[in-house]
Specification:
Blueprint lengths: L4 H6 E2 L13 E2 L18 E2 L3 H14 L17 H11 L8 H8 L3 H13 L3 E5 L13 E6 L1 H7 L1 E4 L11 E5 L4 H12 L20 H4 L48 E2 L2 E2 L3 H15 L8 H7 L1 H5 L4 H11 L8 H8 L3 H4 L3 H34 L8 H18 L13 H4 L5 H16 L4 H4 L3 H8 L1 H14 L10
Antiparallel strand pairs: 1-2, 3-5, 4-5, 6-7, 8-9
Length: 496
């Protein structure tokens, strides 16, 4: 803060000084706007007419020292400095002021978190208020916030700016400046010069190159403070360019090879890709786990990366994790995938602390996978042979009579009511009679017992229409579910 800006920024001169109170001054309070007052409807400041006058207020806040971020937060920037002014310059160009975070990141070269910090500082200093607060919906486009550029009341009080409300029905933030005190004109002129200049990104401070030893140092030294001998320059240097030409030393030309103009690829990159650091390996393992394990689908990748940080730092792969989970045992019902993974991975990096142990666990897991695959093949083969082979009648006589009667009705419907004496039906009396309620109840009880054991043979003996009429929609639907589950690789059907 300069010597001229400090007294005018901290002390409040009277708008019209008189002989009695010429030395009177009022100390300005601390500059801070609470979160509840960071909206246009609740702000105490006034809307800036244009970006130029708003930048005057921004430079005043930066030089006054009334706002210090570390008074109100324990993280983020320490002061309202040139970086905040650069962000404000980008906001001053926008109309309406509706910037996106990605836009400010591209324009300023800052990180996303830094941009959010400086926007928060502008709001806390009373220079920026929300008109509409943007939202970020998962899976949808992010909506940018719309801001209003404001001039704090402390700025008007420090410079003696008089304001007037032209429309009494309009809100208080629409008041306009109507005059300026004599004591604040010098400071206003200084702020105007600052607002007209553009604050640029500071250049990186790199150490100068080491000087060349030997007589060549005087020949290749850069010219400083003299006119350059270039086609775009009117003047010329005092010495001839031919006499100042320097040649490389003989040691650099000993091999006879010339340096290739093509830059070499960095050794830190493998096949053109950047090598992952510790955090990158954690996120890579977490992303692979959410893709490989069904019960981790939909979990947050950063949360899984934090849960699996120990095994990721130990160099585990997703195959090693699956081998350990096979040894540890997985739960049949998962409520919270990240919590279950945290329990299962407890002590994993200590138990399998060598690559040989992890390789053994992976082999056991793959052997179990192969055994489960063979078991599924045997199940499908047995089910196919049971359906396509010779049918064995039920053991219960009542159920057998019901099934034979159902077959007889199907054959009668196919032959148009003409009965065929081919020995398929043992008793003609059973063919003409409908099954009774007691027989149907026994048939349904037998089918229900088979369904509890994972068998659907009795229901599948009948055609779908007959099965619906005899057993009902509920039992037929249950049979469909059991057959669909038997085709899954994660389910084993059958009696123990």
């Amino acid at each position: 803060m300069s010597a001229l800006a400090a007294p005018a920024a901290v002390m409040l001169p009277a708008p019209r000084p008189s002989a009695d109170d010429a030395d009177a001054a009022v100390v300005l309070p601390e500059l801070f706007v609470a979160e509840a007052s960071q909206w246009l409807s609740t702000s105490a400041g006034r809307i800036a007419g244009e970006g130029y006058s708003w930048m005057q207020a921004v430079h005043w806040v930066a030089g006054s020292g009334l706002y210090r971020p570390r008074r109100h937060r324990s993280h983020g920037p320490r002061s309202f400095g040139p970086t905040t002014v650069r962000v404000a310059q980008e906001l001053a160009k926008l109309f309406p002021c509706r910037p996106g975070i990605d836009y400010l990141v591209r324009r300023t070269g800052l990180s996303e978190r830094s941009v959010e910090y400086h926007l928060g500082m502008l709001r806390e200093a009373g220079l920026l208020v929300w008109i509409v607060k943007g939202t970020r919906v998962s899976g949808g486009p992010a909506q940018a916030s719309e801001f209003a550029r404001m001039i704090p009341v402390e700025f008007d009080a420090a410079l003696g700016i008089r304001t007037v409300q032209r429309d009494q029905d309009a809100p208080a933030y629409t008041r306009a400046a109507s005059g300026l005190a004599e004591s604040g004109r010098a400071l206003m002129a200084k702020l105007a010069r600052k607002a007209s200049r553009k604050v640029r990104r500071p250049r990186s401070k790199r150490p100068p190159k080491a000087p060349v030893n030997g007589p060549e140092q005087r020949l290749v030294a850069p010219i400083s403070g003299e006119t350059r001998c270039t086609p775009m320059q009117v003047g010329s240097s005092g010495s001839s360019s031919a006499g100042t030409t320097s040649f490389p030393s003989e040691s650099k030309l000993a091999s006879g090879a010339r340096k290739s103009p093509t830059p070499k690829k960095s050794k830190a990159k493998a096949s053109g890709r950047r090598k992952l650091n510790v955090v990158g390996r954690r996120f890579q393992l977490a992303r692979e786990l959410t893709q490989e394990l069904d019960w981790l689908r939909g979990c947050s990748v950063p949360r899984i990366a934090w849960v699996a940080r120990n095994v990721a730092d130990a160099g585990w792969t997703v195959t090693d994790v699956r081998g350990w989970l096979h040894l540890r045992g997985e739960a049949a019902r998962v409520r919270r995938g990240s919590g279950l993974l945290a329990v299962l991975l407890t002590g994993a990096e200590t138990a399998l602390d060598t690559p040989e142990k992890r390789a053994g666990a992976v082999e056991q897991w793959r052997g179990a996978q192969e055994e489960a695959r063979r078991h599924r093949i045997q199940q499908v083969r047995a089910r196919t042979e049971r359906y396509e082979g010779d049918w064995e009648p039920p053991a219960s006589p009542a159920v057998r009579r019901e099934v034979e009667g159902a077959f007889a009705q199907v054959r009668d419907a196919a032959t148009g009511g003409r009965r065929q004496d081919n020995g398929d039906v043992a008793d003609d009396r059973d063919l003409g009679q409908e099954p009774g309620e007691q027989e149907l109840a026994e048939l349904r009880a037998t089918a229900a017992g088979e369904l509890m054991g994972g068998e659907t043979r009795l229901i599948r003996l009948l055609d779908p229409e007959m099965a619906l009429r005899v057993f009902g929609e509920r039992m037929v639907a249950r049979a469909d579910q059991l057959e669909a589950a038997s085709l899954s690789s994660l389910t084993t059907m059958g009696r123990p």
